[in-house]
């Protein structure tokens, strides 16, 4: 039944730009400040105030446009979108309707099977965010700290055909924008929010359903669940010959359903008109060129390079290329140690485990990629065992000290001293004469037990290869 339907999804992604000040005033954009601390007469819309456009907003918007393969328009204007809502002090939002800053871009998404699909971007425009309503028992309070924080809205063409593709698109977009440094794209803090337009078509009967808009989805999990729920709901309605209403719905995460909010507004409901307090802006070619030079290597090219230059698997390359802080950390470790595979293994394993346990991000990690590279070198030299390396990494993270310093301070180096190991082996033989006897009667398996006991006695520091050689040698002497 589901095969009869074609799913059509277009997304509108709102991304808060990480400028230091707001779009039209000099208030701080700092997240987590006390309510209404980051406000002034301009962003509170007091009479007689005038907005002035923050140049950094335009720089970030152009940078995003270039990274998403858009055309940067030679001039742009700002418009007013009128609507009344308590979190919107001006009763209109400054946005861009007729002359957005960027148009006609695309990005490629690649699924885990290696299938690549191009998703076209209709436009990117700049606008300001609204404040936030806080509901406490029967009261509603309003915090205007977010009012006037700059956003870009990225509007795709309806090129996406499933919830999985939509999630992949947003993940790819996030990787590009964070790499460019225009936003932190933290969905949990609301700096990346997604609206989706979903409709279905019955291919067999050639019936097109109405478009439903899903509002303000703020996690990848919710995005996938909400879209899948909505697709199923629309298919069920069409199967029952019922109308799919043209409306705006929201995702209720607790109930796991979408709920109707209101009939869909059309453009005319907002009475758009040009923002008379701001001029039309011209963008010089030379300015665009200058910005293009500041764009770092993007995740997709990094992904390919990690596979070809470092021989990583596509899985490893994918994870290590998504976040610029992680990819920098990896490359420093790989270059310092000359062991990219080992560096990738340790980062995907131990480093991620430590970060997750302490709920930290790699930027706040106490050790650098260079430090990890040094640790890998020490490991390769056989100075320490791989189990000691793990303990060491934990200590490096806690103290911020280098591997070398900790090894020296705590006398952690791996024991390669044949005489010292020989002494431990003898001690184990003395403690377990029966095991030695069994070996001599042909029970070869006891050797594993003896190695284990020697390793335990040496507190894991004896070189296991040497231990095995010495045990065999001594057993054959007996
Ligand atoms: Zn302000």
UniProtKB/TrEMBL annotation:
GO terms for biological process: glutaminyl-tRNAGln biosynthesis via transamidation; translation. PROSITE patterns: GATB. Heterotrimer of A, B and C subunits. Allows the formation of correctly charged Asn-tRNA(Asn) or Gln-tRNA(Gln) through the transamidation of misacylated Asp-tRNA(Asn) or Glu-tRNA(Gln) in organisms which lack either or both of asparaginyl-tRNA or glutaminyl-tRNA synthetases. The reaction takes place in the presence of glutamine and ATP through an activated phospho-Asp-tRNA(Asn) or phospho-Glu-tRNA(Gln). Its EC number is 6.3.5.-. The keyword Protein biosynthesis applies. Belongs to the GatB/GatE family. GatB subfamily. It catalyses: L-aspartyl-tRNA(Asn) + L-glutamine + ATP + H2O = L-asparaginyl-tRNA(Asn) + L-glutamate + ADP + phosphate + 2 H(+); L-glutamyl-tRNA(Gln) + L-glutamine + ATP + H2O = L-glutaminyl-tRNA(Gln) + L-glutamate + ADP + phosphate + H(+). It comes from the Bacteria. This is Aspartyl/glutamyl-tRNA(Asn/Gln) amidotransferase subunit B. Keywords: ATP-binding, Ligase, Nucleotide-binding, Protein biosynthesis, Transferase. Residues 328-475 form the Asn/Gln amidotransferase domain. SUPFAM superfamilies: GatB/YqeY motif, Glutamine synthetase/guanido kinase. It comes from Clostridium amylolyticum. GO terms for molecular function: asparaginyl-tRNA synthase (glutamine-hydrolyzing) activity; ATP binding; glutaminyl-tRNA synthase (glutamine-hydrolyzing) activity; transferase activity. The keyword GTP-binding does not apply.
